[in-house]
Specification:
By secondary structure, the chain is of the alpha/beta class. Helix content is 34%, strand content 18%. It has eleven helices and twelve strands. Strands 1-2-3-4-7-8-9-10-11-12 form a ten-stranded mixed beta sheet, sandwiched between helices. It has a two-stranded antiparallel sheet with strand order 5-6. A hairpin with a 2-residue loop joins strand 3 and strand 4. Helix 1 packs across helix 2 and helix 4 packs parallel to helix 5. The longest helix has 15 residues. The chain is elongated and about 70 Å long.
Length: 353
């Protein structure tokens, strides 16, 4: 099973370089450092799909770059538009794999929800991402290019991606270095220059990765997929809990909040008859009381390969009400994408059949 990047030989992929790395690369070619600034801007601000597009570079230099470097350019295999401005993309990599990204429109702007792996190792019981198993990690360039493809789509109308969510297929903290570098590239001046405070990293609870991220020096929002208030139930829904049980995850979240000053979000997918009872709500409230945290309730997006079902609206509101009365900050996620197979992995599964 391959775990390597998306492949075109050994040529360096400049789309996965920080601005100073691109400048250093250009200096190594005997060019002035400002050429690096130009190349970085072409890739990340002007959406160049090849070195030939970089028209303020001499023709000879463009040819030389094409010979000794490359830049990831994911193929848009499909766009599936849904209600309320949501669009799901299936994007093809150089090695024949595919990944998903979702564009979401909110009152505060456009968010890009992107993948960090092809497939997933975590095997959560209600999720489509891991059904086909894990294939490989994405490179930083492949993570970045998902955002750029979405930004290219919204830019003709004057829009831009203003928020990044690493919450697509895969576990970002299992592909830690590439995920963090992608965020740094997306934050860089000369590119999209998106604030770290407008970025979210989602994890199923990899405690070492959470603690490492707490010391990274980038004030991103940490989002933890919890989905159960007891170890027995979480073991059943999320096998990762057998390695990192709830108490350790909550302690890591507390450490993250203390070190960064950022409120942690706990994602809780409500599954009918499984984790949505009044008792579950009270246990969840007790677990999180006193923590700098927020709960995001998510009525389940059903996956046809799984038997789990979405709870009724009344059940969702009752669960939410118990948390509110317990003074736990809570919202119910605006339901975007159910009509476009927006649960992680669904569109890719349909394409790969």
């Amino acid at each position: 099973m391959s775990t390597s990047g998306g492949g075109a030989g050994s040529k360096p992929d400049l789309k996965g370089f920080m601005p100073e790395e691109v400048a250093s690369f250009m200096v190594g070619l005997g060019e002035p450092a400002f050429r690096g600034t130009q190349v970085f801007s072409w890739m990340h601000r002007n959406h160049a799909s090849s070195f030939d597009d970089m028209t303020n570079l001499p023709l000879a230099l463009r040819a030389r770059l094409a010979a000794c470097a490359r830049m990831t350019n994911l193929a848009v295999l499909s766009r599936k538009a849904g209600s309320q401005g949501t669009v799901k993309y299936l994007l093809g990599t150089d090695d024949g794999n595919s990944v998903e990204a979702v564009r979401m429109r909110y009152r505060y702007g456009t968010s890009a929800c992107v993948s960090t792996q092809v497939g997933c190792k975590m095997a959560c019981a209600f999720c489509a991402s891991g059904i086909g198993g894990f294939v490989r990690n994405l490179t930083a360039a492949e993570i970045v290019d998902q955002v750029l493809k979405i930004n290219l789509d919204v830019s003709p109308s004057g829009g831009r991606v203003g928020n990044i969510v690493l919450m697509g297929t895969g576990e970002p903290l299992d592909n830690y270095s590439a995920s963090v570098k992608a965020l740094r590239i997306l934050n860089a001046e000369g590119g999209l220059n998106i604030s770290f405070r407008r970025m979210t990293v989602s994890t199923c609870g990899l405690v070492p990765g959470i603690l490492r991220l707490a010391d990274e020096g980038i004030p991103v929002t940490l989002s933890i997929s919890l989905h159960a208030p007891t170890d027995d139930l979480r073991d059943e829904l999320m096998p990762v809990n057998r390695r990192y049980p709830i108490a350790e995850v909550v302690q890591a979240a507390s450490t993250y909040a203390t070190r960064t000053g950022r409120r942690v979000t706990f994602e809780y997918a409500l599954i009918s008859g499984v984790n949505d009872s009044d008792l579950h709500a009270h246990l969840l409230a007790g677990l999180l009381r006193g923590l700098l945290a927020h709960v995001n309730l998510i009525p389940l997006n059903p996956v046809e390969e799984r038997e789990y079902e979405r709870p009724s609206r009344d059940r969702v509101m009752r669960f939410l009400g118990i948390l509110k009365r317990s003074r736990i900050p809570v919202t119910s996620r605006r339901e975007l994408g159910a009509d476009i197979d927006a649960a992680c992995g669904q569109l890719r599964r349909r394409y790969c059949r």
